[in-house]
Amino acid sequence: LTCSETLGEAIYNYGDTELRSKDTCMVLAQIVYNKCDVYKKAALCMCKSGQLNRVMAYIHETKKFILDDYLFLLSKCPSTELIQCLTHDWNGNPAVLSTGIAILWLISNDPKEVGFHLLKEVYDSGQGALEQVILHDIYCTLDDWQEIADACKTHNHNALADNIFTVLTSQEGGTVIMITADDDNDGARLTEHVLL
């Protein structure tokens, strides 16, 4: 057989449906993808086999991965473990994916809850952890973080949204204007955050 991306996909798809053959198929598909220089799909085979340390070594050795490749991996294998590997330092190398970009992408796509879970893990990891992530993320802008906060509000993750708004408005020139209105139906109060 001649190695091709099509052959790799056939082997991968078979292994993805026939669980008894999954490990063997993932290894074979990875070999085919490597020979064809389809790096992101070779990495996906490793992810599907649970070999996250190998994935990270592969990413750093090949030096061929770009943002779209990381997002491809997240879309095909949205596990918390993979997200943590991509968004944290690895063997002295800086993280390959911004935490903010990962969260924004996850909550903008399915499965949204994985993104909210990641955000909650950051928040729960210690006092000031969320603020550090927001302020030191050079790829995710303050506008992106506002979009994340808005999505949190929309999906009833109000504590996360409020904490993000607090960090954003603590920056120079940031202000929160609280607007309240009575809801005739149940007396609930609507709170809207506006950044100036």
TrEMBL record:
It comes from the Eukaryota. Gene3D superfamilies: 1.25.40.30. This is Clathrin heavy chain linker core motif domain-containing protein. It comes from Scyliorhinus torazame (Cloudy catshark).
